[in-house]
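Re-run with default settings, no changes from the original entry. Doing this only to confirm the output is reproducible before filing.
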Amino acid sequence: MRCASLALALLLAVPAAAVAAAPTPAPPRESMRIFGAVIPPLSFMRDGTPTGYCVDLAHEIQRRIKDRTRVELLPWARAYRLAVDGANIMLICPKRTPEREPLFRWVGPVLESQSVVYALRSSRLRLGNLADLRALDGVLVPRDFYTHQYLRIAGFTNLDPVNSSQTMLAMLLAGRRKAMVLDREQLPFLLRQAGVSADVVEPVLRVMTIHSYFAFPLYAPDALVAQWQQALDQMRRDGTLLRIHRNWFPDLADSTAHR
């Protein structure tokens, strides 16, 4: 698998006006809520309860700072739009991109991700670079994820946005599309969940490496943001972060936990 020739610099080339910090809005009266997306194994529902790597991290930080705010899960597109539109929401584990940088206050990093193009092994698809990806008849991407935004900014017009990673994998397995773009840490869990052998799908192109954070509203109190960052730093020092990472990503190297 070869790295994509189109550098991440394309995404980083955001006009200065776009990344200038906007005026901080007045905080709303309602209490801040914590939202995660349904993105297994980062965050998903199990037996009616939110769970996953990012949920475990949030709960451990909450335990340390004595915060009892409930973690709620929504489809990513809805959670992100609510946060961007000014709702008093903290998002768990969104990717920190230049496009999103001025919209939130960031605590982390909490996870290093590799975004990869996958195809059915039986298709024998081979891609040398992102230009080859443009030639495909529809490329599955998670709706409003950073990869969707990245490829859209790069000028891709053959994207097929899908609301969930599970649906995206099902469409690939059914042969409805030849390729999907997915974070590497998601694939093993999704394949096990679908009862599919790991060798049915193979990586054909690496797109980028990027990091996940906790994203707070711009008007979040300094003391609260500092509490979360300090608790996370303590978890990194005492080994808790690495232990949670190994629990959820036994197939991946420890180096993907954070850098």
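Residues 222-238 form the longest helix (17 residues). The two ends are 23 Å apart (CA to CA).
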